[in-house]
């Protein structure tokens, strides 16, 4: 490579796409991301293709819909035959580095059944060179904490308990975490990223800079724990009672009865559905604090790029693996079929002069996480593999949006039994029946289940999706129309790695879409 072209792919975890200052959030204080938005393009309607972490990151880093990569849940293997962003960047002469994690389970056909990676939630995707791995057991992080003189408790995760005297309260709290901000995981990720960048000198690089936050435990170190007032936080979007919401669908009823606060607060008790509005507001204040902490740390990374003359040689992509319910519909986490779990942030700063005319703009088109890999490869001048279901977003940065761009988004969720959640058993389904797929445009949203009743929402009249119209006779033609559109989508995007090839009397023919 003769010209220096760097890529900084920032992947945060569980950051809702509607919580960005650029998109109108009046409370969030993130000056560094605001600067990135001012110098780049912000995508308002950007969606992940799957939740939770493993499936979402598989789509992000392979450019494939979940129906094609089939790593459908955390713990489910990713087929080794699929390429990914790192492997393709290597072909272009890069040595892709990773800070963070990908939550990838290896293909069991390529390793032994007693491979220790099958005893953990996920490991690193092939192709990446780890320079600050968080998975599988956070050992690098906890070792750094101990090495800085902090006395780790016997259960290391207790650093995320509230500091100070226990007043008997559990769950959402205004108290800070026991770990100070200078030793938080957010600080550690930044240190690992900066250490790598400083070692590169003038050599081109591609860095996946991952952050664990604002993923739970929902507790922030000082001073971020007190940066936002719970009273200022927006209330959750939810019905009169969780029992009423549970009537909407059997899958929703399962999660309302299953999701525990202990999965989100180190000392949480009871179900997520039982959180009061005051507790939800406090949780949201902490969530915003964790976002501001990331922003402060990103400021250090951005300052380094500017000080070393790399700012205008670097494509910066800021995105996420999935969203967070955050108390909406009485739920916590990333699950089911509501927008809060699937809408994610996407900001792209292309330093090229061709992007000058779009700086500070907002794109309203529907975009998807599968577009990330084609965008980066396109910017590097590398070939985009035929396996990719997504398309490059660079035309939006260059003020030339394609006329044939998608007019809806698609996302999927697989709810088979895994070791920490058992909806398949509770609902009396077979493993391969535990699937839903969504098609959503500006007016309507259709949710198709393999073996459960469908859902249909009028987004204009019911943006929070409380009223299922799937059984409304007046809506039957529209339900059929969206079901047919989903079938067409599946047929168009069925796995096609080799379908561009064909034999002929003249030998092998290759066609590109």
Task: Walk me through the structure.
The chain is α/β, with parallel strands linked by helices. The chain has a single domain (6-411), classed as Alkaline Phosphatase, subunit A, CATH 3.40.720. Helices cover 27% and strands 15% of the residues. It is built from 13 helices and 15 strands. It has helices at 31-39, 53-62, 66-69, 85-91, 139-147, 185-200, 242-246, 250-258, 277-307, 372-380, 394-397, 423-427, 476-493, and strands at residues 6-12, 41-47, 50-51, 97-100, 129-133, 206-210, 314-320, 346-349, 361-368, 409-414, 435-440, 444-449, 455-458, 501-502, 509-510. Helix 6 runs parallel beside helix 9 (277-307). The model has no long low-confidence stretch (mean pLDDT 96).
H and E string = EHEEHHHEEHHEHHHEEEHHEHEEEHEE
Distance between the termini: 28 Å
Strand order of the largest sheet: 5-4-6-1-7-8-2-9
Q: Give the overall pLDDT as a whole number.
A: 96
Structurally, the number of domains stands at: 1
- Please describe the biggest sheet, giving its number of strands, its sense, and whether it closes into a barrel: 8 strands, mixed
- Approximate strand percentage: 5-15%
- Quickly count the helices: 13
């Amino acid at each position: 490579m003769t010209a220096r072209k760097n890529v900084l792919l920032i992947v945060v975890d569980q950051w809702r796409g509607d919580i960005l200052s650029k998109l109108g959030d009046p409370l969030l204080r993130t000056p560094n991301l605001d600067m990135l938005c001012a110098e780049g393009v912000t995508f308002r309607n950007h969606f992940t293709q799957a939740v939770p972490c493993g499936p979402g990151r598989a789509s992000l880093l392979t450019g494939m819909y979940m129906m094609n990569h089939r790593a459908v849940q955390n713990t489910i293997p990713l087929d080794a035959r699929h390429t990914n962003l790192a492997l393709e960047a290597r072909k272009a002469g890069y040595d892709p580095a990773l800070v963070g994690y990908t939550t990838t389970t290896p293909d069991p056909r390529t390793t032994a059944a007693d491979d220790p990676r099958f005893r953990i939630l996920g490991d690193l995707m092939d192709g990446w060179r780890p320079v600050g791995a968080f998975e599988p057991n956070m050992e690098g992080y906890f070792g750094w904490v101990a090495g800085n003189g902090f006395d780790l408790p016997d259960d290391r995760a207790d650093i995320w308990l509230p500091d100070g005297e226990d007043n008997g309260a559990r769950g959402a709290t205004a108290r800070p975490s026991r770990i100070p901000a200078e030793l938080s995981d957010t600080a550690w990720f930044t240190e690992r990223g900066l250490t790598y960048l400083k070692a590169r000198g003038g050599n081109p690089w591609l860095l996946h800079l991952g952050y664990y936050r604002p993923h739970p435990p929902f507790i922030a170190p000082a001073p971020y724990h007190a940066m936002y007032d719970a009273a200022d936080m927006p209330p959750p979007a939810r019905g009169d009672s969780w029992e009423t919401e549970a009537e909407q669908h059997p899958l929703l009823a399962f999660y309302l009865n299953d999701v525990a606060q202990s999965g989100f607060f180190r000392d949480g008790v009871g179900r997520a559905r039982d959180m009061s509005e005051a507790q939800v507001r406090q949780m949201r204040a902490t969530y915003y604090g964790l976002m501001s902490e990331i922003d402060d740390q990103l400021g250090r990374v951005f300052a380094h790029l500017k000080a070393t003359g790399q700012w205008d040689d670097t494509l910066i992509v800021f995105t996420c693996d999935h969203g967070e319910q955050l108390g909406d519909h009485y739920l916590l986490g990333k699950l089911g079929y509501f927008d809060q779990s699937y809408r994610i942030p996407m900001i792209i700063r292309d330093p090229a002069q061709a992007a000058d005319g779009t700086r500070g703009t907002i794109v309203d088109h529907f975009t998807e996480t599968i577009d990330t890999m084609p965008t980066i490869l396109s910017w590097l001048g590398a070939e985009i593999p035929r396996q990719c279901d997504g398309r490059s977003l660079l035309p939006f940065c260059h003020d030339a949006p394609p006329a044939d761009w998608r007019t809806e988004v698609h996302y999927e969720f697989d709810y088979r039994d895994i070791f920490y959640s058992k909806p398949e058993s509770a609902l009396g389904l077979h493993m391969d029946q535990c699937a839903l797929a969504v098609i959503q445009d500006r007016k309507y949203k259709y949710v198709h289940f393999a073996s459960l009743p469908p859902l249909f929402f009028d987004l204009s009249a019911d943006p929070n999706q409380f009223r299922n119209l799937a059984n409304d006779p007046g809506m039957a033609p529209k339900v059929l129309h969206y079901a047919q559109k989903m079938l067409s989508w599946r047929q168009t995007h069925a796995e096609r790695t080799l379908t561009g090839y064909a034999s002929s009397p003249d030998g092998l023919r290759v066609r590109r879409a």
